[in-house]
């Protein structure tokens, strides 16, 4: 197709050829421009609408109204508060368990070493749980942030408490506070001055005698390392164990020795069997507790809770 027209006073003739190609290009450009303009207008329109007419914006582009947004936020806040409250309850429960643990430590620790309890004298020590706060009137972001921080601190504290308790338990297990005979025993002779059964004169008895049938298991009263296992003319078959905090225990008159020097034992391990060897008048275990070279009354080492 060809268009022709005469323009202006000079009467110039203008001509333009309209081909299919020209039309296609023009239409294409126009369409692209319209799409771009539409996109920009849509975006700008929404931005304006969100500020001014949220309800309209919602209708146009699926944007949430302030009310809906508030509703969702408050639902999340509620959940977050529930989590915080749960955390607080758990924290309170842990404090209760900690108090119980402290009482147990107090009962189970011999008075001679109470000041040496690792991480404080069995009364909680420095490992406290963080103070948790349930915040009700803060923004969701702030509440979330503070909860996450609380949880991180809480988790850290729990693992610290766990490590401390494990340390205390290991320490307690390394003190000679256990009973050295499995069962079937009676205390036949206490610690202190007594009439020597052989010399019939007053003599210091530096241990505790547990009468029991020959063969009754003798148990390590705490974890430690065997420092002696052999024969002694006085003690007969004897085992000695070195423990933490400078403690040493001695188990005498055994019929059979079951450990060797250098061996590591745990509390309750069978180390020998009751006998009547050495300077002994009948089957019994003669049990001594020594700390830094001084004999301690073994009865004072057995926790109050076991009496
Ligand atoms: Zn004795």
Automatic annotation (TrEMBL):
Domain M23ase beta-sheet core as annotated: residue spans: 204-298
Keywords: Coiled coil, Membrane, Transmembrane, Transmembrane helix
Domain of life assignment: Bacteria
CDD domains from the UniProt entry: M23_peptidase
Coiled-coil region(s): 73-100
InterPro entries per record: Cell_wall_metabolism_enzyme (IPR050570), Dup_hybrid_motif (IPR011055), M23ase_b-sheet_dom (IPR016047)
Segments passing through the bilayer: 20-44
Single GO MF annotation: metalloendopeptidase activity
One of the Pfam families matching this protein, by short name: Peptidase_M23
Protein's name according to its UniProt entry: M23ase beta-sheet core domain-containing protein
Source organism: Polynucleobacter cosmopolitanus
């Amino acid at each position: 197709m060809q268009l022709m027209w005469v323009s202006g006073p000079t009467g110039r003739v203008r001509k333009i050829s309209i081909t299919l190609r020209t039309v296609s290009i023009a239409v294409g450009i126009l369409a692209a421009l319209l799409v771009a303009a539409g996109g920009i207008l849509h975006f700008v329109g929404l931005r304006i609408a969100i500020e001014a007419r949220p309800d309209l914006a919602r209708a146009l582009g699926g944007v949430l109204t302030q009310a809906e947004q508030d509703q969702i936020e408050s639902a999340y806040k509620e959940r977050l508060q529930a989590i915080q409250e749960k955390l607080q309850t758990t924290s309170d429960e842990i404090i209760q368990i900690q108090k119980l643990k402290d009482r147990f430590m107090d009962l189970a620790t011999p008075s001679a070493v109470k000041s040496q309890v690792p991480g404080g004298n069995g009364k909680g020590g420095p490992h406290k749980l963080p103070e948790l706060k349930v915040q009700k009137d803060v923004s969701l972001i702030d509440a979330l942030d503070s909860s996450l921080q609380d949880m991180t601190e809480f988790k850290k504290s729990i693992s610290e408490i766990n490590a401390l308790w494990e340390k205390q338990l290991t320490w307690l297990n390394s003190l000679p506070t256990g009973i050295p005979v499995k069962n079937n025993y009676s205390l036949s002779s206490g610690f202190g001055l007594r009439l020597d059964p052989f010399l019939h004169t007053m003599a210091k008895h530096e241990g505790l005698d547990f009468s029991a049938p020959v063969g009754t298991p003798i148990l390590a009263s705490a974890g430690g390392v065997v420092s002696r296992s052999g024969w002694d003319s006085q003690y007969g078959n004897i085992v000695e164990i070195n423990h933490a905090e400078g403690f040493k225990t001695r188990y005498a008159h055994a019929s059979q020795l079951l450990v060797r020097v250098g061996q590591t034992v745990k509390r309750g391990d069978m180390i020998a069997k009751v006998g009547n060897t050495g300077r002994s008048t009948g089957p019994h275990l003669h049990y001594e507790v020594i700390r830094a070279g001084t004999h301690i009354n073994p009865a004072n080492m057995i926790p109050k809770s076991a009496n």
